[in-house]
Design a protein that fits this description.
About 40% of the residues are buried. The two termini are about 35 Å apart. The protein has about 325 residues and is α+β, with helices and mostly antiparallel strands. The model has no long low-confidence stretch (mean pLDDT about 95). About 30% of the residues lie in helices and about 25% in strands. Strands 1, 2, 3, 4, 5, 6, 7, 8, 9, 10, 11, 12 and 13 form a 13-stranded mixed β-sheet that branches. The chain has two domains: about 130 residues, Aminopeptidase, CATH 3.40.630.30; about 160 residues, Aminopeptidase, CATH 3.40.630.
């Protein structure tokens, strides 16, 4: 008889959950305790009532589900869906306990709790502080499992990789009217105002969380025009970052240092001038100076754009969503 245990978000249970993750997914997506704590425990969007842990009679973790829902006014305002979108961040069942209805039980539990909050759409992945922007393509059986439960395929996205040892940095030439640099801590207020005005939504939300976490500015490469007005940005992450970025989270997959690039954006009136390419090149150079070898861009469909910088797809994901009736 399997014991079902609520409220898995306890420090003493995290190591067991991480251990199960690494047994099942660790060959490609190696989990760290600090990463799991950040994404599945500390994140303000973790929906405790809609998450569940399964343990066997020896109190070993044999499965769990983590669901999320925007629970603060800021999250509801800035994250997609205006509080009507929920997320299944992760669902794992140990092999010996599959095809016994436990996964179905976990999923139905999360769905019911999310629906009780008024959620009308449930995404697999894509959550704030996500692990995956969809079901990894290397697990087609998982995709089929969700599709049998009324999740529909909505798109395909990829992560991209560049090895700076194999493809060294080619130095850029700055346009004379542009300044591109990382910002200082005292400029964070200006950054947040810029994001609110020009990139209102998830990117603004992520910048706010970054500032709240004590970010110093080194994670934002910013473009200024000739009047010193902020017109674009590119976020960069490395192992020293205050927050473990989604484009750096699988760094243990590689032997050498990893850095992440993105998201990036240039305000509409300055697009079409090559400034996006300039800021990406500046971001690549910045990470190269920090000793990074492997560059990762996560969750994008901009294949032709990033191939200009010698990036190639490394992981692909199938995005799934379920429409539910409240």
């Amino acid at each position: 008889m399997v014991k079902v245990k609520w409220d898995f978000i306890k420090e003493e249970q995290i190591e067991k959950m991480v251990s199960l993750w690494n047994k099942e997914l660790g060959d490609t997506y190696p989990m760290r305790k600090a990463l799991f704590y950040q994404n599945s425990v500390k994140d303000e969007n973790v929906f405790v009532d809609g998450s569940l842990l399964l343990m066997d009679e020896q109190d070993e973790v044999i499965g769990f589900i983590v669901s999320k829902y925007p629970q603060t006014n800021r999250a509801k305002k800035l994250l997609p869906g205006n509080g009507q979108v929920g997320w299944i961040q992760t669902l794992i069942i140990a092999p010996l306990y599959r095809q016994k209805g436990y996964g179905e039980h976990l999923l139905q539990h999360a769905e019911k709790k999310l629906m009780n909050l008024g959620v009308t759409k449930i995404n697999i992945g894509r959550d704030p502080f996500h692990y995956f922007p969809g079901v990894p393509s290397r697990y087609p059986c998982v995709q089929r499992w969700f599709e049998k439960r009324d999740y529909l395929h909505t798109g395909t996205v990829s992560d991209y990789h560049r090895d700076l040892k194999e493809n060294p940095v080619q130095k850029r030439r700055d346009p004379s009217n542009l300044k591109i640099r990382t910002i200082e801590m005292e400029e964070l207020k200006v950054l947040l105002e810029f994001m609110e005005h020009s990139f209102h939504g998830r990117w603004e939300y992520e910048a706010c969380i970054y500032a709240d976490a004590g970010g110093t500015g080194r994670e934002y490469v910013v473009v200024f025009d000739e009047k010193d007005e902020m017109i674009g940005f590119c976020r960069v992450n490395d192992r020293a970052s205050t927050i473990i970025g989604q484009n750096e989270q699988w760094s243990n997959y590689f032997e050498d240092p990893v850095g992440g690039i993105g998201p990036l954006g240039v305000i509409s009136e300055y697009r079409g001038r090559g400034y996006g390419q300039e800021v990406v090149q500046a971001a690549i150079e910045e990470l190269e100076t920090r000793g990074v070898r492997h560059l990762i861009i996560d969750w994008t469909v901009l294949d032709s754009f990033y191939r200009k910088f010698e990036f190639e797809p490394i992981w692909t994901y199938q995005q799934l969503q379920k429409q539910v009736e409240v």
